[in-house]
């Protein structure tokens, strides 16, 4: 760590020198422009960026299918605004995988193609992306998926179950966008300014978005089990519906706590959620005992449903823990 003494020039201007090593490493010399970003009691300084868009290139010669789609997602989440995918010859299968990956990501579009390259670009500004709006939307979609997956199960509605599985892509799309914005906030102070949230709060929201993405995954798992199961007996069906309602309440209350600005209210809501998680766990064990009396194969599949609902409530408990940390006094 280096220190510098603040001086006064011209009677009213505070000045401080920059460490020469840092300035040299970052191409700072006489006449260079630097940017300042206030963050509570800190002031972040960075060289002024000459490029508005971050461009990256990836060799996709040995990539196809899911691997290629994952590579595109990784480049997007890492923060590249322009992604160039290159190989000696882009195959039709690779083009399909690239387009499918782009459809899973907010703002990413194919803007150019040749026989050797495919160029994608993020067409949205960071200032247009809101983590708060993203996690609010994730909350609504994930909870509707969870409720509909149980409805599909107890009513033997395969169309509804298939719809739940398809909606998982919507949650994933918002999750990737949240991850992209969060990484941008960590990497570039200007992004934090555009987003309008402290980096610590962005971390809390990003962490909670991950929990909501997992809730959606378990809703998808229940929907897929619903496609394999026939009619569920009335008693365990009613118990599963009640368990889903309890898990839903845990997630709703924890998200209310996370988004609450008043610390006392947020703390009270989060602590309520923690108690609710214990109640859900107790009830889940009761429901698990009920389904064990059914046909062995049906009992096994319904046991997985109980486990997914219990885990969804646990993810709500994790959000409550994050809400408690967000509401706690700052050191």
UniProtKB/TrEMBL annotation:
All residue ranges annotated as the SpoVT-AbrB domain in the record: 8-53
InterPro entries on file: PhoU, PhoU-like_sf, PhoU_dom, SpoVT-AbrB_dom
UniProt cross-references to Gene3D superfamilies, sorted A to Z: Phosphate transport system protein phou homolog 2, domain 2
PANTHER family noted in UniProt: PHOSPHATE REGULATORY PROTEIN-LIKE PROTEIN (PTHR42930:SF6), PHOSPHATE-SPECIFIC TRANSPORT SYSTEM ACCESSORY PROTEIN PHOU (PTHR42930)
Protein name (Swiss-Prot/TrEMBL): PhoU domain-containing protein
């Amino acid at each position: 760590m280096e220190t510098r003494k603040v001086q006064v020039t011209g009677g009213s201007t505070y000045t401080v020198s920059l460490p020469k090593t840092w300035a040299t490493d970052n191409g700072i010399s006489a006449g260079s422009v630097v940017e300042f970003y206030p963050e509570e009691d800190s002031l972040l300084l960075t060289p002024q960026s000459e490029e508005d868009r971050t461009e990256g290139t990836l060799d996709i010669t040995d990539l196809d299918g899911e691997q290629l789609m994952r590579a595109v997602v990784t480049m997007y989440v890492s923060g590249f605004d322009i992604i160039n995918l290159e190989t000696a010859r882009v195959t039709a299968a690779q083009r399909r995988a690239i387009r499918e990956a782009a459809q899973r990501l907010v703002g990413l579009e194919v803007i150019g193609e040749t026989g050797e390259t495919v160029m994608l670009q993020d067409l949205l500004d960071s200032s247009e992306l809101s983590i708060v709006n993203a996690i609010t939307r994730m909350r609504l979609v994930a909870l509707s998926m969870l409720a509909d997956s149980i409805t599909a199960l107890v009513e033997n509605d395969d169309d509804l179950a298939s719809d739940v599985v398809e909606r998982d892509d919507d949650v994933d799309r918002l999750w990737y966008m949240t991850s992209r914005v969060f990484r941008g906030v960590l990497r570039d102070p200007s992004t934090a300014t555009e987003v309008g949230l402290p980096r610590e709060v962005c971390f809390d929201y990003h962490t909670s978005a991950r929990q909501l993405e997992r809730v959606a995954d378990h809703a998808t798992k229940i929907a897929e089990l619903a496609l394999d199961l026939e009619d569920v007996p009335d008693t365990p069906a009613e118990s599963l519906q009640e368990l889903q309602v309890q898990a839903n309440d845990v997630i709703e209350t924890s998200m209310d706590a996370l988004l609450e600005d008043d610390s006392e209210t947020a703390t009270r809501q989060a602590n309520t959620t923690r108690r609710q998680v214990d109640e859900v766990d107790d009830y889940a064990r009761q429901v698990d005992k009920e389904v064990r009396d059914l046909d062995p194969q049906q009992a096994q599949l319904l046991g997985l449903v109980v486990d997914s609902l219990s885990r969804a409530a646990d993810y709500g408990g994790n959000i409550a823990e994050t809400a408690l940390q967000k509401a706690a006094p700052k050191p």
